[in-house]
Q: What sequence folds into this?
């Protein structure tokens, strides 16, 4: 069974930057991983004017695209069961799933704070609290402004969770 780590915080707190650093470390150690992002925006990852986008707009509930090295699946639904999706991802060869967002889920969490944020703005238990902002936040004991610091923290997290030997 794989591990799950959530990276949460408000908009522009550094979630994507942090996850990109984590992906680099995971790949350095050949840890297979998936990333699942939550967005409050109505968005699509299917470029405009492609055949798959045209199929979807025409009314197909699901559209798949298999290219030489990738598979893309798009489904038209407002229903989303996080637990079911995670179980599906963990049934593959993924050793790790990084979640960006999904604040209400109860997996190990890294909370990223902007200078104006308060820890009390977020509920739950956090494995770590950090800030990527140069001025920092006194409620964030970890300074993640340097990429190497983020990578070092994550490497230790991987070791603690037995993904590195």
A:
């Amino acid at each position: 069974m794989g591990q799950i780590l959530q990276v949460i915080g408000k908009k522009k707190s550094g979630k994507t930057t942090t996850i990109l650093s984590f992906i680099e470390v995971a790949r350095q150690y050949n840890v297979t991983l998936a990333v699942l992002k939550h967005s409050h925006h109505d968005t699509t990852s299917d470029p405009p004017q492609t055949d798959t986008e045209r199929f979807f707009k025409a009314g197909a509930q699901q559209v798949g695209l298999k290219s030489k090295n990738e598979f893309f699946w798009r489904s038209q639904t407002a229903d989303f069961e996080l637990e079911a999706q995670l179980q599906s991802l963990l049934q593959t060869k993924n050793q790790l799933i990084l979640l960006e967002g999904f604040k209400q889920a109860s997996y190990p969490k890294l909370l990223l704070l902007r200078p104006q944020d308060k820890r009390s703005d977020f509920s739950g238990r956090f494995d770590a609290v950090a800030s990527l902002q140069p001025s920092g936040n006194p409620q964030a004991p970890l300074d993640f402004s340097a990429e190497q610091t983020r990578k070092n923290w994550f490497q230790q997290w991987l070791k603690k969770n037995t993904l590195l030997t």
